[in-house]
Design brief:
Layout lengths: L7 H17 L6 E4 L5 H10 L2 H5 L2 E4 L2 H9 L13 E7 L2 E2 L5 E2 L6 H10 E9 L15 E5 L4 H10 L3 E4 L16 E6 L2 H4 L2 H9 L4 E4 L1 E2 L5 E5 L5 E5 L4 E4 L12
Parallel strand pairs: 1-2, 1-3, 3-6, 6-12
Antiparallel strand pairs: 4-5, 5-11, 7-9, 7-10, 8-9, 12-13, 13-14
Helix pairs in contact: 1-2
Bound molecules: ribulose-5-phosphate.
The site of ribulose-5-phosphate (5RP) has 17 residues, from strand 3 and helix 5.
Length: about 260
Amino acid sequence: MPLSPLPPVEAAKRLSAYAAVDRHIALEHKLIGIGSGSTVPYVVDRIVQQGAAANAGRTFLPTGFQSKQLIIDAGLNLGDVDQYTRLDVCIDGADEVDSDLNAIKGGGACQLREKVLADMADTWVMVADYRKNSTVLGTNWKQGIPIEVAPFAYAQVLATLVKMGGTPTLRMGKAKAGPVVSDNGMFIIDATFPEAQMKAPAKLNTEIKLITGVVEVGLFCGMAKAAYFGNEDASVTCRAVGGKVEQIASVPDVPPVASA
Ligand SMILES: O=C(CO)[C@H](O)[C@H](O)COP(=O)(O)O
C-alpha cells in the first residue's frame, strides 16, 4: 500500500525516519534506543512495520516521557537505562545538523537522556526534515543551544553564559506559569552564541559543560554515524561520518526486513 499523503514537512520527517530504520535496524539488533521529538513517532511506526516476530526479542529504551509512551503505545518491550550499558542502535531527532554531523538537540528538553543513550549506542543516527540540514549550527535553529541546569544554579549559569559571549534565556512553560522543568526536574536555558563560537561546537560544548550547575549541553559533537534528511521531492539525503553524502531517490512502502 502506498504511503498515506501528509503535509510536506511531516512527509519529510517520515521519509527520514523510514530510511534510517531500513538502513540501521536489522533483525539481529535487539537493544534499541528511541529518541524524542516529532520525527521519532515515524521511527517507531517503521519498527512496528518490521513485524511482531522481529520485535518479539527486542527491548527499547526511551530518552524521555514522550518516547516511553510511544514504546508502550506501540506494544513494544520497554527497557530501563539502569538495566543496560550499551545499545545496538539509537535513532533520534535533531534541531540542526552541521556539515560535520555535529548537532543541536534539546528542543524538547530531553538532551541529557538523549546524550546518555547516544553514548551507549554502537550506532547513533539522527533523523530530520530538510529544514535541519545545515552547514554551521545556529544558522537555521535560532532558538539557541538548550542547556539543562540545576534549578538552584540557573541565575549564576545565565550570568556566566553572558560572560562567555552568549545570549541566554530561561525557557518558560507555554501552558504553565514559570520555567519549563525537564524529565529530570531541571531548568532549561537556551543560549545563542556568535557564529565564530558556533563554528567550533565541540569546544563550546566543553566550555559550557564546565560551568558549575550545568547538567548537560544540547551540543552533540562527533557522536553520529549518519544523519537522514527527508526532502520535499520525496528523496532522502544521507550524510555519513567522514563526509560521504548520498541521495536516496525513494523509500520503499514496506520495510525490507519485514517479518511475519
Ligand atoms: O532533541 C530533541 C528533543 O529534546 C528532538 O530530537 C529535537 O527537538 C527534534 O525534534 P523534532 O523531530 O520535533 O524536530
